[in-house]
Write a structure and sequence with these properties.
Elements (H helix, E strand, L loop, with lengths): L8 H14 L1 H9 L4 H57 L3 H6 L14 H6 L6 H16 L2 H8 L5 H56 L4 H6 L3
Length: 228
């Protein structure tokens, strides 16, 4: 029997067990080779377990893809939103290192000439997703905690209510990020379970093929029914 592939495994194994169930002569020959109805039922159980694992893995991967896409879209919008606030802050407080530090924007402060690559790198904002979310929280928390900052931001369309609302969006995005990590873990676990189910089914089918070839070499018609 040809080795089952990821694409055709379900269909081939379904055909195999249906063929056995529909052919009394084949059942008798298999029973003489040690493949009683109980043994065939064990193989059928592996087949059913594989189908269940395949469906679960497909669903888990779908949820992961959807969660990742939704998070990417939200993250893109949030980066635009945060960038806009940063531009406003720099225009108002570009020379105030204290404010920039309080809003986690030290990398934009005029701290003098950068003398080493290490020093320059330390002042660059991290590009990681977790670092961005941490920075966004610090940016909004810092602004909301400074009456002097709030006063100036309110004059350019950023009242406290808007800042508080956008901060809640940052927190919601952090929760979405955590949820996406859960979906990734679920997809990984379901893939591992699917691989285990595939190995078990393939091993059973391979052994059946080996035994059948030996015991049915005088019955090529039966071997043909099994695809051997």
């Amino acid at each position: 029997m040809p080795q089952l592939t990821d694409i055709t495994r379900e269909g081939q194994s379904t055909k195999l067990f249906n063929t056995i169930a529909e052919n009394p002569d084949l059942q008798h020959a298999l029973e003489e080779a040690g493949y009683t109805s109980d043994v065939i039922a064990q193989g059928r159980a592996l087949h059913d377990a594989h189908i269940a694992a395949l469906n679960h893995a497909n669903q888990a991967q779908g949820r992961r893809i959807n969660a990742t896409k939704a998070l990417q879209d939200q993250m893109k919008a949030m980066k635009i939103q945060v960038s806009g606030l940063e531009k406003i802050v720099r225009s108002l407080f570009g020379k105030d290192a204290g404010v920039l530090r309080a809003l986690d924007m030290r990398q934009y402060a005029a701290f003098g000439t950068v003398k080493t690559p290490e020093e320059k790198a330390s002042r660059q904002p991290s590009k990681s997703q977790a670092a961005f979310l941490a920075h966004a929280r610090s940016l909004y928390d810092g602004a909301l905690a400074r009456p002097d900052v709030l006063e100036k931001l309110a004059t350019v369309g950023y009242p406290a209510a808007r800042l508080a609302s956008e901060r809640e969006q940052v927190l919601a995005l952090a929760q979405a990020d955590a949820a996406q990590e859960v979906r990734k873990a679920e997809a990984k676990a379901s893939t591992a379970a699917l691989n285990a189910a595939e190995r078990a089914l393939d091993q059973w089918v391979s052994q059946l093929a080996t035994v059948a070839k030996v015991h049915m070499r005088a019955r090529p018609d039966l071997l043909d029914k099994l695809g051997l």
